[in-house]
Amino acid sequence: MTIEVRNSIALVTGANRGIGKAVTVGLLEAGVVKVYTAVRNLSSVNDLINKYGDRVVPVEFDLTRKETSDAAATIATDVNLVVSNAGVVKLSTPLDADAVESMKYQMEGNVYPLINLAQAFGPILKANGGGAFVQMNSLASIKNFLPFTGYSASKAASYSVTQGLREAWADQGTQVISVIAGPIKTDMSDAAGMSEGAPPPSVVSDGILAALKSGDFFVYPDQVAQGVAKVYESYATNVLEIPR
Ligand SMILES: NC(=O)c1ccc[n+]([C@@H]2O[C@H](COP(=O)([O-])OP(=O)(O)OC[C@H]3O[C@@H](n4cnc5c(N)ncnc54)[C@H](OP(=O)(O)O)[C@@H]3O)[C@@H](O)[C@H]2O)c1
């Protein structure tokens, strides 16, 4: 299952900065017809509108408000590519006093919104020929990083949901892509103290564009993730192929 990026119509959550912005620019430069930029603050994509005109269509999206996913799906009925990118991070080890609160915050920011978005847009992707759905997962999806335990747990959950979507949508021909990224230079990795030496977010955009062509499920966009993939990918692929 692959899609033709040129002439596609995309929706990208968190398109105003970081990885979401780079993916939006990458898609526009690759020839998509338009991108619905799903953001909290509509004016935060004004620079993209100034550059790409009416190929950029802002729609309201808040990870914590399911109704914004549902409302976006009543507007963006022509999309065949959804990039679920927006997310949150908060430091917490399992032994911190606020460990449970922290994990709840990250489940509510990184997992339930993925399910809401998938439920809102799955029927649209089906109606538009199957299309593709991309989820921004992380090396933290497959390995716990102690200071980021709540984040790691939420990204492990989002990765699990991504696998479920892949199976659930196989019959409707939707290509599902799981991006397993290491540190990428953005506000998020800066705040986490992980951005030194990290590559720019354009590497994620390049990886997604390549997978949309190849039909791959996994994208390992950066050198750190590619190093892990050397030991992980064959294991993961074999596990994913275990029959139900
Ligand atoms: N950077 C990394 O090293 C890295 C590595 C692996 C995976 N990831 C994942 O990649 C994705 C993007 O990360 P990033 O590094 O680009 O982060 P970022 O620079 O911090 O950007 C986060 C994006 O999410 C949006 N967002 C945050 N809370 C939101 C909410 N409640 N409702 C709607 N949008 C919200 C932000 O919008 P506002 O501007 O309105 O806040 C912003 O567009 C995340 O899912 C992250 O977990 C990042």
Order of helices and strands: EHEHEHEHHEHEHHEH
Our count of domains comes out at: 1
Strand content: 5-15%
Tell me, what's the shape?
globular
| Mean of residue pLDDT values | 97
Give me the side-by-side strand order of the main sheet.
3-2-1-4-5-6-7
Which architecture name does CATH use?
A: 3-Layer(aba) Sandwich
Q: Segments where pLDDT lies below 50 for 5+ residues?
A: none
Helix percentage range: 40-55%
Counting DSSP H or I runs of 4 or more residues, the number of helices is: 9
Outline the biggest β-sheet.
Answer: 7 strands, parallel
CATH class category name = Alpha Beta
CATH fold title: Rossmann fold
Q: Give the N-to-C terminal Cα separation.
A: 21 Å
Name given to the CATH homologous superfamily: NAD(P)-binding Rossmann-like Domain
Q: What structural class results from the helix and strand content?
A: alpha/beta
Bound molecules: NADP nicotinamide-adenine-dinucleotide phosphate
Overall strand count: 7
Radius of gyration from CA coordinates? 17 Å
Description:
The chain has a single domain, classed as 3-Layer(aba) Sandwich (Rossmann fold), CATH 3.40.50. Helices cover 46% and strands 15% of the residues. It is built from nine helices and seven strands. The chain has helices at 18-29, 46-52, 66-75, 99-110, 112-127, 149-168, 187-191, 202-214, 223-240, and strands at residues 9-13, 34-39, 56-60, 81-84, 132-138, 175-181, 218-219. It has a seven-stranded parallel beta sheet, sandwiched between helices. Helix 1 (18-29) crosses helix 8, helix 3 (66-75) runs parallel beside helix 5 and helix 4 (99-110) packs parallel to helix 6. The chain binds NADP nicotinamide-adenine-dinucleotide phosphate (NAP). The site of NADP nicotinamide-adenine-dinucleotide phosphate (NAP) has 26 residues, from helix 1, strand 5 and helix 7. NADP nicotinamide-adenine-dinucleotide phosphate is lined by residues 14, 16-20, 40-41, 44, 61-64, 85-88, 136, 138, 181, 183-184, 186-189.
